[in-house]
Amino acid sequence: MDFTTRIYTVKSISGDYAYLVIPEEPELEEKCVARALLPEGISEGCQVKYEMLQYSLI
Hints:
By secondary structure, the chain is an all-beta fold. The chain has a single domain, classed as CATH 2.40.50. 0% of the residues lie in helices and 47% in strands. It contains no helices and five strands. Strand 4 and strand 5 form a beta hairpin. It starts with 5 loop residues before the first strand and ends with a strand.
């Protein structure tokens, strides 16, 4: 399991999924995450922190 803390930017939202990117590492693929796992109130351009298997809005 990956317990690394990461900061993602919401690149886009499509239906029940959000696509996250790490701006400092553009060579990595975007990450598709179910919106049910993300905090309420996210929108494109928001930043979220992934830590200890949970996402939180920054």
